[in-house]
């Protein structure tokens, strides 16, 4: 395989994972906006901010061209926010 092809494939993979991380970050921000007034516990709010900080932080478990760890952290934050929203909706009067 030619070196140009290999670098092109690696670049496209890095671009795809970066796009996935950006998409997940956008979803987390939208979910947070929707849950702002929903009575979400402090633990879930802290998890949200931790996920955002980890995503934009230069310190990662995996090197920056591989965004799988960032995507995983954002997915956990989304799941926690979704669970908190369901719990808040069940306990909300009316």
TrEMBL record:
InterPro entries: DUF1232
Residue ranges constituting the DUF1232 domain according to the UniProt record: 45-76
UniProt-annotated location(s): Endomembrane system
Membrane topology term: Multi-pass membrane protein
GO CC terms of this entry: endomembrane system
UniProt organism field: Streptomyces pacificus
Transmembrane segments: 6-26
Keywords on record: Membrane, Transmembrane, Transmembrane helix
Highest taxon in the source lineage: Bacteria
Protein name: DUF1232 domain-containing protein
């Amino acid at each position: 395989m030619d070196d140009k092809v290999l670098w092109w494939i690696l670049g496209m993979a890095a671009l795809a994972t970066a796009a996935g991380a950006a998409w997940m970050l956008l979803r987390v921000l939208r979910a947070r906006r929707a849950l702002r007034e929903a009575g979400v516990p402090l633990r879930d709010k802290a998890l949200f901010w931790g996920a955002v900080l980890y995503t934009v932080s230069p310190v990662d478990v995996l090197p920056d061209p591989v965004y799988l760890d960032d995507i995983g952290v954002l997915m956990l934050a989304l799941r926690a926010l979704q669970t908190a929203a369901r719990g808040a909706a069940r306990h909300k009067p009316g």
